Structures are given as structure tokens and as C-alpha cells.
Amino acid sequence: MYASPLYNDSHFHFKISFKWISILFLVLLLSACGGGSDSGSSSTNDPVVEDSTGTGEEGSSETGSGEEGSDETGSGEEGSNETGSGEEGSNEIGSGEEGSNETGSGEEGSNETGLGEEGSNEIGEDNEPVDTDAIIEVASWEYDNQSSLSFDNNGVPTSLVLGSVDLFSNDSPSGFYLVQTDEETDEETETLLSNVSSSGDEITIANADSSISFTLSNKSYGNHVALHLINIKGINGDHTYGLRLYIKANAAIAAYTLDDYVTTNSWRTNKYLNINWPYLWGDARLDGTYGSVVIYNKSAEDDELDAVLAEIWAVQGTLGYMPKPAGQDSWTRTTVLAWVKAWAEKFNIINKVSIGPVDSEDLYNMTEKWVIPSGANRVYMFSTVWRGEYHLYELRNESVDGDAFPNGKSDLLAYSEYLEGKGAHLQLKSLVPHLPRNDATYFSDTFSETRFLSWGAGTLVDAIGTDDTTLQFKPGPDYIWEQETAFVRIDTEMIYTGSIEINAETGIWTLSELTRGYIGTAPHAHSAGDAVVGVSHSYSDFHFANDFEQPDSLAEEVLNPYGELLNEMKVGHLHFDGTLDKEEQPWYLRDYTNYLYSMQEQPVTGSVVGGSIDANFEKMFPMAEQATKAAGYYGIRIGMRLHDMGRGADADKRDFAPNMLDIHFDVSDLILLGARRPDFGAAFSGRSLTTEILDNYGFTDEAFALYKDWIILAPVYDDIDVEYAESFFTRVGVHYRGEDVLVLSKNSDGKYIYTPHRVMGRSSGEDELITIDQEWGANRRTQNIAAGDSLELYNPNDAQEPQVMVYVDEDTTALQDPLITVNGSGTLSVTGDIDPGEYMTFEGGSTVTIFDQDWNVLRTLPATTTGFIVNNGNNTIVTAAGSGSDAPDNLLVQYITLGDEYVLETNKHL
Predict the structure, then answer these.
(1) What predicted TM-score, i.e. pTM, was given to this entire model?
(2) Is the pLDDT of residue 896 over 90?
(3) Cβ neighbourhood burial of 864 (10 Å; 0-12, 13-18, 19+)
(4) Cα angle, residue 337 at apex, residues 333 and 338 outer, rounded to 5°
(5) CB 815 within 8 A of CB 887
(6) Is the pLDDT at 40 greater than 90, yes or no?
(7) Buried b or exposed e, range 692-719, using 16+ CB within 10 angstroms
């Protein structure tokens, strides 16, 4: 059974389960039978399991902004009038380049955690090489190497042996440091801890007067070492203290965190390692540690690195420090290799279609018409489709109640089995598991759930009545997070706080703008001194405490039926949206994503807002490199939506149905972000493709054809083509922007080519570039003018006839007999009208095409060109109505020139 930290409240108590007694007995028994040799202050007292394989690529876990609908900043979703901020996701903006701001063994976001699955107690002394004939070629890699991390009497590392090779470098300030952070300035002070003692495989380091000390277990294995912080003295819950270990190596090394009590950084080709324990104030985990990390040789490659990482997962998963999939009778290096191979084969190529059927007939019709013919092997459904609710009100996390599944779970199971027969699997979108608001099991006039994740507790200063909208709160010494708004519970009443003011002198918080009797509870009068408990939330959804393996665990009560549903439906992907950052318990998210992962019997991928879930250790393995790319956070979005579906501050851009240039630009951006999974869906937040969109969007066939092209290209897309594409764009924040669109097509030889389309900007440089909205796709580059206005536009390409797009705003008059003049002489003259809300496009020839707002062709109009050429450099272009015709005051225009064709290197892989 997976386990997590204790809930920070007085009614939970640490317990040692029978499982841990069993594991401890087995470890001691094996140590007595053949524990291994000492090296420095470290010894191999932990068992060594059978050999295997694993690793991942840097940046496989993007920390970008939001995922499919995570950029909302309004009040809830679909009229839910949430008190919190918006729906799905948190508008998170990530850290730029892949591999930057790394928080795990040099790999972005590579923090793993948790305890393994119950019954996985096969721990052997088998040091024989893996029988890899049916699994993987592992060459002559040695499995019986010895690793160790040794320290001198001053607490300074003296050797770091990984797989019998000492990688330690002496010319560095390596060692343990006590870190103290100034709460006002955030400046850190580091003090070397040189008061050191050791006993067996334990090392205790302290400050000069021994008032603060830390004891770590320093475990050695064949190809990795593990550090577990097992005792802390003298911190007394002070949040300003941290512990840091610096290590410098002479080759690339990596640290992989086994839980979120630890963070790591590496830099300068991964030779400098920085391991941090920032949460010394947290309660001990159920395994008795305050944070665990492993160190391994990252300079190993391919099969060798597979073998190292397989050892890590086999050992640490068996010991309970890492989650592992369910249904494994044993967890050895052999079974790890076999599992990762199955994972890689299942996800080596992922092609996703997002559908939003309105009923069961529509569900199967869409699947037969769009999913199966495309070759897609993953079907994504939004929570309102399969469950019937986004935020939970009447339903539970495991409920199946959407219109497409009128018989509930049985219908969803039948669809899952139908997809399995087609070689596809489900991805069910959901918010993070939370408590339904109208469920009397948790909230009523006389009862309120108490097993919440909490940001702290205190007492009521003065009595309040049922109608009071202000209260005064005195936090206890254990409060963790000062918040601008919050939820609190007093007895059986839940109360929303709209504003918090803190008196620094008295320490009293004034909570005002109260909503009394929140989510089904009733207002009550409360007395001075009554307990006030802070309740953590995301968008007014409440979460369970970290009370795994505790009696009457709410976490297990909520997660078990949900995990069982996902396992029974054989979902291929676990997603956790709306998580926010839980500063009050930073390890919260990782613990329960690990728990749900460990319930799944079939390979799954997973994601949270901004990246993959840490439980997916499979993504670390070189043998799974392609699957890791395909399963990455970003997909190659081929996104369609109808006009007037945009929302938010940029609705003037989001409202437009995307044209094919918009879609091509979106694709290039995502390719450069590392996406290798084609996603055919809706280009707007929190929704999926519907029959209405597919039937009414004018470029559906073109978009579908582009999707099928990327199904061919994505798995083999060449790095040379990446370099070519990068030359056109600039990365700003999490996405790319530019003036050009790389349009994918085929030449006469059947080879895939890019043709750069330059959307000409004003020579003054004032026009915005084409940008990406994380949730909505490309924001096109246009000039907003009145008919008759003159534009000076710059063309970087050869002199040529430009392509033209003109949109007449729906709130103005028609553009009659359009006349476009270039440099005072060249003309494009059109006979006929462009009505409000219509597009006109010209791509050469003797006609222009008129489209409606959803890009359906309405008609063609005759056109005549005379010297209609833009020069290389600056050009003056006037967009007007014919002589004596009406001239609308609001047009959007684009003038586009084409660059040289580029034949993709990827063609050689096809």
C-alpha cells in the first residue's frame, strides 16, 4: 500500500504498519545473510535486487502554462459562479527552455515519491545479469558494481563511487550547509556543518554548538546511493531553516528525489549537484524519513543507463520509497525492464482525438468517422462529457453520468472495451479528486467533514453570531500559510473569507467579507476560544488530508473508488488539473498522484498542469525515449473552433475561427516545444470537438488531412528540421512568436515541404508578432484599418504577387467592389461586395473567394490584377472600396508573401 506524510493535526498519530515490520524484518534478515562491503562511511546493508534498466530525457516534463483549459481566470466554469479563480488550471507560466530550472536529477520536474504496492516484498540477492534476449540488449554492462558516498570528519564528501567509478571532484565547496532564509528579504545565509559523527551507515551533522543537527541514512547499492533524512533536532518547526548538500563530480551525475520533501538542481553539464531539504518543518513521512534522494551516474548512456535506473526502481520500489504499478508479484530488475518495454511499446506512438459527443449515438458515430479512420489510438473526453460535471456538486469523482453514457459506468466500460478492440484507449479529463459540494456525506446543516487538507489552525478571538460577516482569528504556532482569501471551519460550519488583514503587533487576523454556512453547512453562533481550522482549496473545491494508511482515511475513501474506475476502464492517461501549488503541504499532489498510479495494472502516462506526473518513472529510461516524447505534456494541436467561441481579455482575437495559417503556426510552436503527439481537437479552452464543429467549420477536411500528415511525421521528425524551424521564431516565455508561418505541404515529388508565409508587418515595426495563447492557439497578425487607409508594409522576400485576406467587421457596412492598390500603380480589382462578417481571400488567378465567419465558402467573385506586385523591401498598400462605393470603417487585413520552399529532412525517415 502506498503511504504519504502524516496529516498535520493532533488527531492523527504515527503508526508502524504490519507491512513495515515485515519489510524491516526482511531487510535485517538479508543484511545478516550477505550485506555487502563497506566503503567509507557507507555500507551496503540494503538488499540488492535483480538487474535491469531506465532513464529519461531532459525537459520531458515541461513547466509551461496550463494544460487544455488551464488558463482560465474568470469565476468558475459554465456559469458555476465560483468563489475561487476560474476553472481548470491556474494560468501557470513556466520556466522557458527545456531543461532549465531543473528540479530533479538534471531532468525538469523529475521528482518521484511515495511507497510501493503492498505485497511487493521480493527482495533478493540475485546479482546475475538480466536475461535480456526477450527484453533488451544490455551488452556487457556489469550489475555487481558497488557504489558509495563517503564523508570525512568535517562532513565533507571525500568520494562518490557510482558503479565502481569514483566520480568525486575535490576542488569544490562540497558538504552539508545549514541554510537560513531572511523572511523579509528572502536572502539566504549558508553555514557549513562540520560537527560530524557517524555510526554504521548513518551520519549526523550539526552546527558548532550542536543545537541543530541532522541524521541521514547513507545507503549503498550496486549502481546508486540513497540518502534518507531520518532525524532533525533543534529546528522546532521554524520555516526559515533548510539543509543543503553540495557535491561536485568529474563527470555527469544526477540526483533523483524519491519524494517532494527534497528538491535538486544540477548545472554545468550536470557535474555540480545541489540537494535541498527545504521543508524541515514538515511531519515525518510514514516511512520515518523527512526526505529521500538517490544519486547515480548520468554519464552512463543507453543500455547502461537503463540498467542503472532499473536497479533504482527495483530497489527503491521494493523498499517502498517509489510507487510502482499494481498487479506485480515481484518487482525486480527483470520485471522493471519488462514493464518499461511494455510502456514504451504502448506509447511509442500516440495520436489523440478529443471528442465531445452529445449522446451515445453521436459517440460511436464520431469515433467511427473521425477517430478510427485517422489512425488515432487515444480518445480524450472532457469531464463534462463522461462524468456530467466539471466541479463536483451532486456527483463523485468516480461517477459516470454524461449524456453519452446514459447507463453510467457500464456504458463507459463498453466504450473502453470497444476502443481496446480498435487498438485505442481512453484519456478521461478531470479536475484533481475533490469532495462534492452537495453530498450530505461531507456537508450538511449539522455536519461538516473534518479530514481536510489544512493550512493551519487557531482560535476565535471574540464570539460571533449567525449573521456576522467579520471575525478575528488568532493562529496557533503551527499555521503555515498566510492567505489573501481562505476557507475556515468552525465546528460544523464552513466559512468563506473574502479578505484577510493581519496585525503584525498582536498577531491577530481579521477575516472579513465572510460567506457563512458555505457548501450546504449552516451558520451557527460561535464562542470566543472555539477552534478555527484553515481549509485548503483549489477553486473552492476541497481536498482530503494526507492521511494515507491512517484509520478512517479520507484520502483513501476518495481515491480508492476513483482509482478502481480508472483501472477498470483501462485508461491510458492520468490527468490532474486544478492542482495549484499547495504551499501548506508542498508534497500533497505528488503523494496522491503516486497513489493513483500505483493502483493501475496497465501502463499509463500522466500529467499535471505544466508537466508529467512524477510517478511515471518510465519516462526516464532511454529505451522509452520516443514514448516519452510522444507522451510529453505538449501535443501537436490541430485545433478547430467556430466563430464567437472565444472568451477573456483577448476575445477580440480568440473569437475568430482559426484559418489554416493559424493552425500551421500553432503546430510549429508546439513542435519546437518538443511535442511529438498529434492532437486533433478543439482550439479553445476546456472543450472538445463536436459534430457541430466538424460539420460547420469550413476547413475541417484540410485540418483532418494535416492531422494525418503529422501522424506520419511526428514520430520521426528530424532535428535538422527543428533547427530550420527555430530560425523563423523567437521564444518568449513558454511559447514562440514570429512573422512567418511554416505551411506544411507536399511538392510534385511527393516530398513534405515547408513554405514560409510572411504576414507582412508595418515598416515602422508597430505590428504585433503572431503569438500563441496557451489555451486558444495562434493569435493572428493583422492590421486593423478603415477602408481607404494606407499601409507601409515590409516584404523580406523576392518581389511577387501577394496573397490577401480582408475581413469586414460584422458591426460595420459592406466593402463594395474592393480595390487594392500597391505602390500607387499595381491593383487588385474585385467586382462584388464583401458583406459584414465575411472574409475575402486572394491567392492568385482571376477570382477571390468569399467565406463566412467559420471559413465555409459562400461564393467567388471576379477579380482583375494589373501589376499587382510587392517589391522586396517597403511597399505602400491601400485597401479601399471602388469609386463611389460604401467604405466600411473597420477592416482586418493581411498581406502575405512566400519564401523559398524547404524540403524536410524528415522525408528520409519515411
Answers:
(1) 0.81
(2) yes
(3) exposed
(4) 120
(5) yes
(6) no
(7) ebbebbbbbebbbebbbbbbebbbebee
